[in-house]
Design goal:
Number of domains: 1
Order of helices and strands: EEEHEHEHEHEE
Largest sheet: 8 strands, parallel
Distance between the termini: 12 Å
Structural class: alpha/beta
Number of helices: 4
Strand order of the largest sheet: 5-4-3-2-1-6-7-8
Radius of gyration: 15 Å
């Protein structure tokens, strides 16, 4: 199972040529087909529906409002915690997509999960488009993403996670687990 985030490291890769089941985040449906699509923000859900994404794939959103759109709820968190980052409403599409992947497969690859910005500005292949920030917007603080994905990796010890990234990318310390490896994005 390949989880497709929207970090700029995946720019130039033809995702449609990757022959494995895929879970996409948000506007990835604009560029490639994924069997599953995770959109936890209402504007993205509405865009996916108006695009027709619900006709040929399973679309997931927050359990608070999935019934309004007649789509599926994201999986429940595999743990309970007291931190703000543990609140399901503070989970984004990327972390939920990784969680969904771990519930569907014992082998999960991640691409486009850059976490960091190289220039302090937003790092997203869809910046400057509908439902996304402008390219001059400050980068998103990745602390919640790092924490939440670390929780998924920890709670699914039998799942093998592989992150496909550039050589300069730094693996967060909390992701250094025996069931997680990093491979070159050129090997995808």
């Amino acid at each position: 199972m390949l989880i497709i985030g929207n970090g700029e490291s995946r720019s130039g890769i033809d995702l449609n040529k990757i022959n494995m089941p895929k879970i996409g985040c948000n506007a990835v449906f604009r560029d490639c087909y994924t069997e599953h699509l995770v959109c936890v923000d209402r504007p993205m859900v509405k865009e996916a529906i108006s695009f027709g994404a619900t006709e040929d794939r399973t679309v997931y959103t927050r359990s608070d409002w999935y019934m309004r759109f007649d789509i599926e709820p994201v999986p429940n968190l595999p743990y309970q915690g007291a931190a703000k980052a543990d609140d399901p409403f503070n989970w984004g599409s990327g972390a939920y997509a990784v969680l969904l992947g771990a519930t569907l497969s014992s082998t999960v690859g991640l691409i486009g999960f850059d976490l960091y910005s190289s220039n302090g500005k937003i790092n997203n292949v869809y910046k400057d488009s509908e439902n996304y920030k402008h390219s001059d917007h400050s980068a998103v603080d990745p602390r919640y993403w790092i924490y939440q994905i670390a929780q998924v990796v920890s709670h699914f010890p039998q799942t093998q996670f592989t992150i496909f990234q550039t050589d300069a990318w730094q693996l967060p310390n909390s992701w250094k687990k025996s069931n997680l490896t990093v491979d070159s994005i050129s090997n995808i």
